[in-house]
Amino acid sequence: MTSPETTDLSQIKEEYSVEGGLDVEEESESDTSPPEIDRPWKPEQIRVNSKQFSLRNALDMIDDGTLELAPDFQRGRVWKLGQKSRLIESVLLQIPLPAFYFAEDTDGAMRVVDGLQRLSTIHDFVRGGEKSGFALKGVEYLKTVVEGARFEDLPAPWKRRINNAQIMAHVIDPTTPPDVMYDIFKRINTGGTPLNAQEIRHCMSNKRSRNILKRMTSTDEFNRATKWRNHIRMNDREMALRFAGFWLLGVDGYAKYSAMDPFLQHTTTLLDDERAVPTDRAEQLMADFDRAMKNARLLFGEHAFRKWPLGGNGKNPINRALFETWSIVLAGYAPEDLTRRRDAIVEAARRLMTSDYTYLEAITASTGGLRRVKYRFEEAAKAAEAGK
């Protein structure tokens, strides 16, 4: 095999955010690779209505559950106290807030898909009380008036000013197809620190898929294999979702999409539908995932799901393509079998990451391409049979 000319496979870059290193390898895309998928949406499929709410009305809907703030969404709540305080100050100054986006369910309930940080901050300040509320600190224009004050400390006119403030929300109609809804949000997701793909899916999904992914990534086995727990940018949930997608649909099912985003969006929709994935099947999915995590740790130790070529012992970031392939492959083996053949399997896997440039390309660049997905699954399956 010849070395690729356009991709430097020796460079391993870790993804970073404002929170620091994320312990996940950055996926690179070739400049010459085609777009992931063509989406010729029909205009009539896009249904977005604009509605006006008072902040009091919006906070009441949050409290009674008709407006959901996407529980377990960690990255959306990392604003520092000064940022939160200046947002509240803006409301007190009667500065209009940017528009929000909500996604409506068929039962009329809504989920916040853009503006989560702002609404969470306002709800915490107004309704949080001493437990989760906060005192204003670092305001700029009302320092002598509200600095250090909690909501209950404000004079009645100031409280009314917050409660009566009007917000504009663009509500995505439930008849809008899920893929169209996902694309709409990707287009308008530009403010602050833009959400990554899994954070978008989390905001737009229902409780069932969120609970399944949370259970998958909250186990001791997952934590031992990855050293992740409650990943700040939801990369843990994305890894679990990738496993679920290939476990449910296989590589042949992926071929229908030949791109990761629509494949994972469809998987989310399946997990949300109990008819598509009954409870007993969801339980089997989670059990197989747990077995895969145990087996990966058993074989590769601290290098599980990380590039580990022969001659190198540094601990690299987790690689998404390695995670999805090896987790699926290892889910089908008994630990006793793998223990007996451990040295042979590890040798075969590391050799792939050392001298098979086609395999290295398949786990490094343009990893969503169908040919590369098929190749890395085939080669991981062969390596797992080593020593027999």
From TrEMBL:
Sequence ranges of Polar residues compositional bias: 1-10
Residue span, GmrSD restriction endonucleases N-terminal domain: 60-202
InterPro entries from the UniProt entry: GmrSD_N (IPR004919)
Region ranges (Disordered): 1-41
A Pfam family matched in the record: GmrSD_N
Protein name: DUF262 domain-containing protein
